[in-house]
Amino acid sequence: MPEKKRKKTTSPKRFAAENNLLQTIKKTVENLSYMSETDAGFELFVGTAAAGGVTKEEILRQTGKSADAPIEERNFDEMFERLMTIQDWFGDDETKQAENFKKLKALFENNLKDLKVFRIGQIQIDIYFVGLDENNNLTGVKTFAVET
């Protein structure tokens, strides 16, 4: 008689840890904005299923975008560097934003692997800062930019 496959279940401890990570990400991005021709907030992004990797194809599939949508991959560290750099002209609000971007980057680096940034679209661009959690789920944040 063939052995039945066991359903993979999430232990209460693991579920609490995952939920804590998601809540921490949500709280960290509450007052952050991405500056382009318009300022946009950030929102939590969690993929729809376990991912085979952090690839262009996987992000398009899990965001429901067309497989032929214009997409470009950007370097995670370089994208954050621009957001975290404190400029001479910054006031208190801008400095706080930069500090919160540092916290977000550290949160990702400590809890996710294979970190990448994807820009999908033209003119109105969806931007995903993502990595894989311990269960290989795409996890991160989403924002958008307008570039004409």
How are the elements arranged and paired?
Blueprint: H1 12-29, E1 33-35, E2 39-41, E3 43-50, H2 56-63, E4 71-74, H3 76-84, H4 92-111, E5 113-120, E6 124-132, E7 137-146
Antiparallel strand pairs: 1-2, 3-7, 4-5, 5-6, 6-7
Helix pairs in contact: 1-4, 3-4
Key attributes of the depicted protein:
148 residues, alpha+beta, Nuia, 5-stranded antiparallel beta sheet, two-stranded antiparallel sheet, 30% strand, globular
Tally of distinct domains: 1
> Which outline best applies?
globular
Q: What's the arrangement of strands in the largest beta sheet? A: 3-7-6-5-4
**Main sheet characteristics:** 5 strands, antiparallel
Superfamily (CATH H level) name? Nuclease A inhibitor-like
Helix fraction, binned, reads 25-40%
Helix run count: 4
- Global structural class: alpha+beta
Name of the CATH architecture: 3-Layer(aba) Sandwich
Low-confidence spans? 4-9
**Number of beta strands:** 7
Highest-level CATH class: Alpha Beta
Report the end-to-end length measured between terminal Cα atoms: 63 Å
The third-level CATH topology is Nuia
Instruction: Kindly report the oligomeric state of this protein.
Output: single chain
